[in-house]
């Protein structure tokens, strides 16, 4: 390890000693009138909350520079959109959703961790569809989720057009979590994968959803419902979180506030432009801007750096009419405030 990498790690560790400069939002899945998976008297929502609190307490007891926020601490059921909004309002550095799995076949077993995206696995799609069904309990869910129908396979086509803005770090964390599960727990390693989970759609920071084990499998169920099992799982999550932060330190990355409404997209071009030249080169549709760089990798989005701002745009378009058409198209989706610029 060279001198500069060591220095980066030391700086990461020493920043604002004693201050809470990293915020993690822990999301216990389900709650309230939605129990999640059920087996006899065991309810997924209760197990999710128990593991989440054990995980959060380990952080609070051992990492004074980390602020822990829960999307719920009791038997409530925030909407999937609200869970992401909690993280965005807190300008969190990490969103961590905890769930238990279920399957119509009792032989299905093991743990898995997901990041936002589309998998070729039909099982992953069905798993995501099951988790996403909870939004149907919400009033006006079609409007809240921009016409998304969790029971329609066609609706998941929208996810094939996305790549999560924080995909690399999310996937790195997912793999680390699975590594710790495999080393400590008796559960089968089902791996880290992509999945179109709506709860991962809204958070504008690295985000994962971990399925600790199968409620429908006798061995998994006995383990994840036991105090020993829950303590071990919480320790795995804590150790994975610590390793993830070490990875950030080795990369020289200090946690920074996420971009509100940052969405899955990709960038292949960066244009560093002073203000006086920003009116040249055609018309653009600006989606959002940030003082800090958002790591993305989509072919149809351009990153323009103007006067110290990173501006994420579509274009360039040869004519204003073409740009206006593109603006109207993206305004029907997530970018309600998109506008044409030069």
Class from secondary-structure proportions: alpha/beta
Helix residue percentage: 25-40%
Which stretches of 5+ consecutive residues score pLDDT under 50? 3-18, 256-280
The CATH architecture assignment of the largest domain turns out to be 3-Layer(aba) Sandwich
Query: Biggest β-sheet: count, sense, barrel?
Result: 6 strands, mixed
Q: First CA to last CA: what distance?
A: 44 Å
What does the overall shape look like?
globular
Brief summary:
The chain is an alpha/beta fold and 342 residues long.
Write the layout of secondary structure elements.
Elements: H1 3-14, E1 22-28, E2 38-39, E3 42-43, H2 44-62, E4 66-70, H3 80-89, E5 94-101, E6 111-116, H4 122-132, H5 141-144, H6 157-160, H7 167-184, E7 189-195, E8 207-214, H8 218-224, H9 227-250, E9 267-273, E10 283-290, E11 301-306, E12 309-317, H10 320-331, E13 339-341
Parallel strand pairs: 1-4, 1-5, 5-8, 6-7, 9-11
Antiparallel strand pairs: 2-3, 6-8, 10-12, 10-13, 11-12
What does this structure look like?
The protein is built from 10 helices and 13 strands. It has helices at 3-14, 44-62, 80-89, 122-132, 141-144, 157-160, 167-184, 218-224, 227-250, 320-331, and strands spanning 22-28, 38-39, 42-43, 66-70, 94-101, 111-116, 189-195, 207-214, 267-273, 283-290, 301-306, 309-317, 339-341. The N and C termini lie far apart (44 Å). Strand 2 and strand 3 form a beta hairpin. It is α/β, with parallel strands linked by helices and 342 residues long. Residues 3-18 and 256-280 have low confidence and may be disordered. The strands form 3 sheets. The protein has a 6-stranded mixed sheet, with helices on both faces. The longest helix is centred in the last third of the chain and has 24 residues, at 227-250. It has 2 domains: 3-250, Aminopeptidase (3-Layer(aba) Sandwich); 267-341, no CATH class.
